[in-house]
């Protein structure tokens, strides 16, 4: 159960702390006393279904965690966890495909909460083949995982020129996500170890040094010359299904004219 422990009080306490919300602030949001929040988190009081639902909503807890907490409290789960192939998600699948196709020839990909690579457009397929050896793209009994590609010897970081700049920033992002998705922790540790090895045994003092540009640019050395990209993410607004809530579309944009020209020439 993502982000949960085996008991409700610990789940609620860890979720609140991950959001950096005090008991007092949460009590004001919920319209209950701080004492009652404390009693629930200590297991001395049990929340009603309505209070628990509002509690988790105020903390913007992932839908999977909300279901798990409801089950821990003895209530039925509130959200479905459909497969992406479910007929009820046909419109969502069409929207994802439209986003991918519209972004061609620039790379775009669909990822889930575990950073599994679910779909690619033509630009994404070309970039993956350009940056990585085929063995780095192979999944181990499931979809290929972008975090595994980062640490694979023939994977994404092999041709990343500015790893010293981009690596620590991405590590900070991964650590933040692992708070709500503990299953990511081993992959975060593996990437941390890779950075320490590649960056001479130590990481920069800060993951966010003074930026040289408005957005972080990834620079890769390739057979086509240096390619530079920046990234944006798209998610579903107010999803009511755990699968849709876990999805994000990563759009990669050329950061300079030379990269744009190479991509347009190569992706047909």
Short description:
This protein has 268 residues and is of the alpha+beta class. 48% of the residues lie in helices and 11% in strands. It has a five-stranded antiparallel sheet with strand order 2-1-5-4-3, with helices on both faces.
Rg, alpha carbons: 21 Å
Number of helices: 13
Fraction of residues in H or I helices: 40-55%
Strand order of the largest sheet: 2-1-5-4-3
Q: Give me the strand/helix succession.
A: HHHHHHEEHHHHHEEHEH
Mean pLDDT rating: 91
Secondary structural class: alpha+beta
**From the 3D coordinates, which CATH architecture of the largest domain would you assign?**
2-Layer Sandwich
Tell me what portion of residues adopts beta-strand conformation: 5-15%
CATH topology of the largest domain: Beta-Lactamase
Count of extended strands: 5
* Low-pLDDT residue intervals, each spanning 5 or more residues: none
Distance between the termini: 42 Å
């Amino acid at each position: 159960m993502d982000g949960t422990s085996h008991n409700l009080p610990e789940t609620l306490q860890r979720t609140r702390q991950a959001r950096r919300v005090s008991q007092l602030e949460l009590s004001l949001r919920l319209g209950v006393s701080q004492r009652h929040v404390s009693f629930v988190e200590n297991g001395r009081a049990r929340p009603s279904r309505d209070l628990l639902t509002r509690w988790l909503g105020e903390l913007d807890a992932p839908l999977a965690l909300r279901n798990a907490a409801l089950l821990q409290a003895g209530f039925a789960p509130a959200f479905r966890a459909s497969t992406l192939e479910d007929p009820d998600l046909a419109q969502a699948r069409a929207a994802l495909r439209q986003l991918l196709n519209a972004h061609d020839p620039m790379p775009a990909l669909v990822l889930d909460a575990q950073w599994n690579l679910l779909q690619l457009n033509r630009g994404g397929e070309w970039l993956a083949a350009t940056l990585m050896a085929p063995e780095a793209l192979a999944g181990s009994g499931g979809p290929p995982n972008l975090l595994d590609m980062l640490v694979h010897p023939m994977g994404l970081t092999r041709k990343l020129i500015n790893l010293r700049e981009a690596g620590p920033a991405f590590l900070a992002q991964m650590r933040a996500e692992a708070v709500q998705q503990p299953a990511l922790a081993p992959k975060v540790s593996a990437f941390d170890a890779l950075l320490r090895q590649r960056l001479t045994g130590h990481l920069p003092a800060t993951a966010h040094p003074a930026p040289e540009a408005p957005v972080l640019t990834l620079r890769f050395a390739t057979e086509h010359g240096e390619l530079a990209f920046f990234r944006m993410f798209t998610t579903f607004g107010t999803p009511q299904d755990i699968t849709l809530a876990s999805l994000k579309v990563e759009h990669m944009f050329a950061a300079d004219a030379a990269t744009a020209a190479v991509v347009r020439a190569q992706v047909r």
